[in-house]
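pinned: reference chain
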Amino acid sequence: MKLAEALAERADTTRRVEQLRSRVVDSARYQEGETPAEDAPQLLAEAGEVLDRLELLIRRINRTNAAVRVGEDGTLTDALARRDVLRLRHSVITAAADAAAGSGTRGYGRQLRSELVMLSALSVGELRAQADVLAREIREIDVRIQRANWEVDLLE
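pinned: its structure tokens
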């Protein structure tokens, strides 16, 4: 099984656990004299089996991520950490640029000469340029990660 297939299965399994959890909660109590919509103990047992499968998948994915090298990015785990931080950094920079540009502010600016003028403490152009560089880096590392996901076999 390729790593990408395991990642897709993990996502499906996680959704399945959430569905089972919801069904167990809905069926955990019922009114006397009525029949519960579903068999809560059976659903709970099924959830336990699905969770066991999820744990196995997560363990294998983590082992694979820690062992596989992705060029100059180090291991796949290192590349994932780098991508996550780049995304956060991009978010901070774009939020700062938006705030400095006055995005989201109400009104039309100054209407009377006696009103206060709002000035930008940051260079919007420089921030937008930094955001563009970060976006390119995110795309590049994401391509390397995706390539590895489809090329690498999942470790036992």
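why pinned: DSSP finds four helices and no strands in the chain. Residues 72-156 form one domain.
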